[in-house]
Amino acid sequence: MTIQQLKYTITIAKQGSFNKASEVLYISQPSLTESIKELETELGINIFYRSGKGVTLTNEGVEFLSYARELYHQFESIVEHYGENGNRKKKFAVSTQHYSFAVKSFVELVKRLDTAEFEFAIREERTRQVIDDVINMNSEIGILYLSSFNMPIIGKLLRQNNLEFHELISCEAYVYLWKGHPLAKNKSITFDELRDYPCLSFEQGSDSSMYFAEEILASFTYPRMIKATDRATMLNLMVGLNGYTICSGIICEELNGSDFAAVPFAPDDEHRSEVMKVGYITKKNLLLSKVGKMYIEELKSYLNTEKADG
């Protein structure tokens, strides 16, 4: 098995056909087909189902592809550290729940580097997609949170897929709303005070449970609920409908604007608060790229500054 065969496998899976993959790889289709056949013989498995419509991964192929992506990423990291890449652009991608601090840290990272040398990507996505992106090595790093409520489910999913969670900061629950909201000037806000206002939540798909919710206190029964798919829409709903969401309280005014406030959530006997452990996930024992390490440094710097500011 060679690094080249790993690259071939990854490209075929992405393109969905040997013909398209051969064009992307600048290799003849017969040579590509022969190389994959040799790999399958060596491994004793069939990686692809072949048909007139293209190729799809077998069950064994899905598992192998996961390992192939991880190994190829490690190879690229080694080349980045020790080799000369010529004109090849280095790639760096992050997947994150809808956190403005994650985007702000990404902005600061890109400012430190030459965008002509890199192919950058940041994806604000549903919780499950963040995890899947890291599993499939579409992103080197994923940003999400864990709590006592979602840890049994998400923690198990991470362990099953050989992922590690690295905590960055712990936060109490805050109510995030427009500064013109009737409750915005309160020193704290109870659940009962929120009953007449719509709770805003990031939509996680029809097949996702409350354990994948981006908002802490997802186990509460909210009498009024509106789903949104992006931060801009959620902010508009806060202004237009006096909506609110439950969050970590770590808000980047530079990106979200200064028209919003984070007020501490006040628990009661029926509605107890939780602690959000905000962090990042990576492949277990992954050798982070130089850029990956720089991004984590930016995250820690921003979050530590926010913590120091109270």
Describe this structure in words.
- The chain is of the alpha/beta class.
- Helix content is 40%, strand content 22%.
- The chain is built from 10 helices and 12 strands.
- It has helices spanning 3-15, 18-25, 29-43, 59-82, 100-111, 127-135, 151-160, 231-241, 253-256, 290-308, and strands at residues 48-51, 54-57, 90-96, 118-124, 141-146, 163-171, 174-178, 199-202, 225-228, 244-247, 260-264, 276-283.
- The strands form 4 sheets. A 5-stranded mixed β-sheet has the order 4-3-5-12-6, sandwiched between helices.
- β3, α5 and β4 (118-124) form a beta-alpha-beta unit.
- The radius of gyration is 22 Å and the shape is elongated.
- The termini are far apart.
- The relative contact order is 0.15.
Q: Could you tell me the strand content as a percent range?
A: 15-25%
User: How much helicity do the residues have?
Assistant: 40-55%
What is the string of helix and strand elements? HHHEEHEHEHEHEEEEHEHEEH
Round the mean pLDDT to the nearest integer and report it.
Answer: 87
Q: Specify the overall morphology.
A: elongated
The first-to-last residue Cα distance is 53 Å
The beta-strand count equals 12
Radius of gyration: 22 Å
Task: Summarize the main sheet.
Answer: 5 strands, mixed
Helix count from the secondary structure assignment: 10
Order of strands in the sheet with the most strands?
Answer: 4-3-5-12-6
Poorly predicted regions are none
The helix/strand class is alpha/beta
Keywords:
single chain; 310 residues; alpha/beta; three-stranded antiparallel sheet; 40% helix; elongated
